[in-house]
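hey so u asked for the seq, here:
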Amino acid sequence: MGTFWQHLFHHDTSATPAKTPAVPAAPSEQWVAVPRYLEVDPSEHVIPSLIAASVTADQAPDSQLVLKHLYVQNPEAQLVSMIASSCALATGDGQFVVTSIRKRVDPS
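ran it, structure tokens below
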């Protein structure tokens, strides 16, 4: 199984790729990008605003704090990153970076 992940994550340009039958590309409308962070509902900004304001008031009493956006990590993106990290750990070599995560949307 290790060679499968090595083949998937490592692209060797010196080797000639095997000829495979052409598969028609899926329409791009069927895939949706999974955001890394989700915006929090404005009604839930109260507690984080109070915490940030109390920290800011202690360190810079003459400053003003404005909370424009509040985000939390997307649990779906966290799960995919953990699975990919575990698979990379199984190969035991190199590093990789997850640049984007996409999920398939049912056409119905």
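The mean pLDDT is 76. The chain has three helices and four strands.
lmk if thats what u needed
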